[in-house]
């Protein structure tokens, strides 16, 4: 029996879903596949698992709940544990690098990627009595695959007389993708609609759509802060996040100047803002633009001149931020302060931030675009969809009537915004998906019951690449190498590098490199446009790290290895944060690499006979021979991503030769690709190189470059 804290129980009883517990459980008990739809805040994530627990579903097996985002899996498990008065031993979470699952776990929150991995080792998911796929409307790649797989697994479990229930939970958006898709569910599953205590939200459109939406967002926030009471919440994209802080910083300087002149001003507090947190690959040019000391910001401004005496407590929220910092949004705001959360769309659906009354919506979202044929990736700031703008607005009406300020006109909203965003399955490269599914013996992937089918061209290019890698044979069958490769929780090309390293004594290096290549944005990019001291210093350090001989030819990947080793050394001396800040390394990435190295090493020790890999985080750098072997292994994994230096003779007559100094021809690409200013190989411009990926900003650049010639 669950004994809840009276205060929690009172709060629960205010949710309309509680009154419907009995009807909901009747539908669940008498159907094997159920859809639950309701707006954010209706109590789907926190309450349904508790209903199931109290209904006896955790007596023999576990209740699984998947979330597309790590933050949500962790924080929802904590919230449910708290509501049920149970510990993390019973209501637990498991995400890629972290977890607190025990033998006593009854409810297990996990990311959709983690459950997909479990399907690979136990197709029937026999540990679970119920699987809840939460946030299905987000249409994340793994949730989409899981919906398809589970529609079949439920039938198999039925045949075995060991029934499994599938509950798909979604906002009210686009439910038809699940209900009317006959290939997915032959009989449309019952839909339980959950009410939300939603207060009216007044939508305010801007009359004009300002070009500089960051400035506009800041202006609007300050205006709300100085004229309206209670909490604020902003929703931006990641770039906006960083720039907002900069804009704010400038504005603070103005406020400070005004104060000296005895004018009125407001106090804004920016806690522990570290601008390194805001760096992104597509935004590399701006990384070091920020000059300004945080201590200035905390300089108290005389209260007598303040309009509304309350300082603003500004907290950033985005997925690359460390969990501790993310959790600050749930902590007590310093006394007398007012909370303002500046967030990416992480906060759009899964998380409940208490007390939000105002939403400032830039209408923008940052999307990774991926060219299906060439594989070039780029980031673009685009308008979000109507559906997600409405989700953002809905955030303001949880505790009472609220307001949403849209920084764009109603005409832009009506004419330019699409109704829904594209599901991830149609936007991401399909290599990993393709190999995983082939490995689960799914023959014709195009016939698989996805909620939305992937693009045919995308599947074809994935198949070709996997054949080149040798993980599929010419008939599309998974090879021995392919089976070895798919054991690893990394992209197939990196799995191949691991599988091949077994034969040499360089496995610990490959593990480290693969781990580092699998974590996004480990090194901050050296700035191209703004020549600043720190970015010059980073460039010099990286050149030193590259060394000479084969080590230098290993190029950017040698730098990555050295950076990880050096950061681990600093970590062992308790100086990780400082070292990372000085050298342009993201410290959260260092700890994620450490965990992934351990995971990969364990995986190899378990699966490969006579191999016992011990991870020494701060291992010595590879010697010349080892560096040479690593180059060959990289070539095996990235062999389809080769580029050849453009020769001077090719420069069209009349063109400036300097413009083509760093230009390369990549295979299968018409456009030229370039060596980035931040690459250590730009000193020697090798004839042939391989690269980790191509990305486009003002031109197409290669990232993670290694020389394959000269030998
Ligand atoms: P849904 O999954 O339908 O979006 P949730 O189950 O996440 O809804 O949340 C239901 C309600 O529980 C919220 O409206 C809020 O009142 C409360 N709640 C959820 N998480 C928290 C939290 N971390 N702190 C305080 N209240 C919370
Ligand atoms: Mg939810």
Tell me what the structure shows.
The chain is α/β, with parallel strands linked by helices and 711 residues long. The protein is built from 25 helices and 22 strands. Helix 18 packs antiparallel against helix 19 (507-518) and helix 22 packs antiparallel against helix 23. The longest helix is centred in the middle third of the chain and has 23 residues, at 238-260. Residues 244-307 have low confidence and may be disordered. It binds adenosine-5'-diphosphate and magnesium ion. The site of magnesium ion has 4 residues, from helix 4.
How far is the N terminus from the C terminus? 70 Å
Q: How many extended strands?
A: 22
Q: Strand order, main sheet: write it out.
A: 4-3-5-2-6-7-1-8
Q: Which term fits the overall shape?
A: globular
Domain Helicase C-terminal: 251-441
GO molecular function, one term: RNA helicase activity
Enzyme class: hydrolase
Domain Helicase ATP-binding: 25-191
What's a quick, concise take on this entry?
This protein has 711 residues and is α/β, with parallel strands linked by helices. It starts with 5 loop residues before the first helix and ends with a strand. The model is unreliable at 244-307 (pLDDT under 50).
What layout of secondary structure does this protein have?
Blueprint: H1 6-13, H2 16-19, H3 21-29, E1 33-37, H4 44-54, E2 62-67, H5 70-84, E3 91-95, E4 98-99, E5 107-111, H6 112-121, E6 128-133, H7 141-159, E7 165-170, H8 176-179, E8 191-193, E9 201-205, H9 213-227, E10 232-235, H10 238-260, E11 268-269, H11 294-297, E12 312-317, H12 323-327, E13 338-343, E14 358-361, E15 364-370, E16 377-383, H13 386-394, E17 402-406, H14 410-416, H15 431-439, H16 456-469, H17 480-485, H18 492-501, H19 507-518, H20 533-546, H21 549-553, H22 556-572, H23 576-583, H24 587-607, H25 624-638, E18 642-645, E19 663-666, E20 672-675, E21 688-696, E22 700-707
Parallel strand pairs: 1-7, 1-8, 2-5, 2-6, 3-5, 6-7, 9-17, 10-13, 10-14, 11-12, 12-13, 14-17, 16-21, 20-22
Antiparallel strand pairs: 3-4, 15-16, 18-19, 18-21, 19-20, 21-22
Helix pairs in contact: 4-5, 6-7, 9-10, 15-16, 18-19, 18-25, 19-22, 19-24, 20-22, 22-23
Bound molecules: adenosine-5'-diphosphate and magnesium ion.
């Amino acid at each position: 029996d669950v004994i809840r804290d009276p205060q929690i129980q009172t709060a629960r009883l205010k949710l309309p879903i509680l009154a419907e517990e009995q009807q909901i459980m009747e539908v669940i008990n008498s159907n094997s596949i159920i859809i639950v739809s309701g707006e954010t805040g209706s109590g789907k994530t926190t309450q349904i698992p508790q209903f199931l627990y109290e209904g006896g579903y955790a007596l023999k097996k576990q209740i699984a709940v998947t979330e597309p985002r790590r933050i949500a899996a962790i924080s929802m498990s904590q919230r449910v544990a708290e509501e049920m008065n149970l510990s993390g031993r019973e209501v637990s979470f498991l995400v890629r690098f972290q977890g607190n699952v025990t033998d006593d776990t009854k409810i297990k929150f996990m990311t959709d990627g983690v459950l997909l991995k479990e399907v690979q080792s136990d197709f029937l998911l026999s540990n679970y009595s119920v699987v809840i796929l939460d946030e299905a409307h987000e249409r994340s790649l793994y949730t989409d695959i899981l919906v398809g797989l589970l529609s079949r697994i439920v039938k198999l479990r039925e045949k075995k007389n060991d029934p499994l229930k599938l509950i798909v939970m979604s906002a009210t958006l686009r439910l038809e993708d699940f209900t009317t898709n006959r290939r997915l569910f032959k009989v449309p599953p019952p839909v339980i609609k959950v009410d939300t205590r939603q207060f009216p939200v007044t939508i305010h459109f801007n009359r004009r759509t300002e070009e500089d939406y960051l400035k506009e967002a800041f202006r609007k926030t300050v205006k709300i802060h100085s004229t309206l009471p209670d909490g604020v919440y902003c929703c931006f994209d990641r770039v906006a996040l960083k720039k907002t802080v900069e804009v704010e910083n400038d504005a603070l300087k103005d406020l400070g100047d005004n104060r000296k002149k005895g004018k009125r001003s407001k106090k804004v507090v920016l806690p522990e803002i570290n601008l390194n947190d805001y760096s992104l690959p597509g935004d590399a040019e701006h990384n070091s633009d920020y000059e300004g000391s945080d201590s200035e910001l905390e300089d108290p401004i005389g209260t007598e001149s303040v309009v509304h005496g309350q300082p603003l407590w500004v907290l950033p929220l985005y997925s690359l931020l460390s969990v501790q910092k993310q959790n600050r949004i749930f902590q007590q705001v310093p006394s007398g302060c007012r909370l303002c959360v500046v967030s990416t769309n992480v906060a759009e659906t899964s998380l409940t931030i208490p007390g939000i009354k105002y939403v400032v919506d830039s209408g923008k979202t940052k999307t990774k675009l991926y060219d299906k044929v060439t594989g070039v990736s780029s980031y673009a700031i685009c308008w979000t969809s109507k559906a997600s703008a409405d989700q953002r607005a809905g955030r303001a009406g949880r505790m009472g009537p609220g307001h949403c300020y849209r920084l764009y006109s109603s005409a832009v909203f009506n004419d330019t915004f699409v109704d829904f965003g594209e599901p991830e399955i149609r936007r991401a490269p399909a290599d990993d998906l393709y190999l995983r599914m082939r490995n689960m013996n799914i023959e014709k992937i195009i016939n698989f019951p996805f909620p939305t089918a992937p693009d045919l061209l995308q599947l074809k290019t994935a198949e070709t690449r996997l054949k080149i890698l040798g993980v599929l044979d010419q008939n599309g069958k998974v090879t021995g190498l392919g089976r070895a490769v798919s054991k690893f929780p990394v992209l197939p090309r990196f799995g191949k590098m691991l599988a091949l390293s077994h034969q040499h004594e360089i496995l610990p290096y490959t593990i480290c490199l693969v781990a580092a290549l699998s974590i996004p944005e480990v090194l901050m990019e050296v700035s191209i446009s703004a020549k600043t001291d720190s970015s010059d210093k980073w460039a010099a350090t990286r050149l030193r790290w590259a060394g000479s001989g084969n080590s230098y030819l290993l190029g950017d990947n040698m730098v990555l290895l050295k950076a990880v080793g050096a950061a681990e050394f600093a970590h062992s001396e308790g100086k990780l944060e400082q070292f990372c800040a000085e050298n342009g390394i993201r410290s959260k990435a260092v700890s994620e690499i450490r965990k992934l190295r351990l995971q990969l090493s364990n995986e190899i020790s378990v699966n490969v006979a006579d191999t016992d890999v011990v991870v020494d985080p701060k291992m010595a750098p590879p010697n010349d021979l080892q560096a040479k072997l690593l180059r060959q292994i990289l070539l095996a994994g990235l062999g389809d991503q080769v580029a050849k230096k453009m020769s001077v003779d090719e420069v069209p007559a009349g063109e400036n030769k300097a413009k083509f100094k760093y230009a390369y021809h990549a295979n299968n690409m018409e456009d030229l690709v370039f060596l980035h200013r931040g690459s250590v190989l730009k000193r020697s411009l090798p004839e042939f190189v391989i690269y980790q990926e191509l990305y486009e900003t003002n031109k197409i650049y290669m990232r993670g470059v290694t020389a394959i010639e000269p030998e």
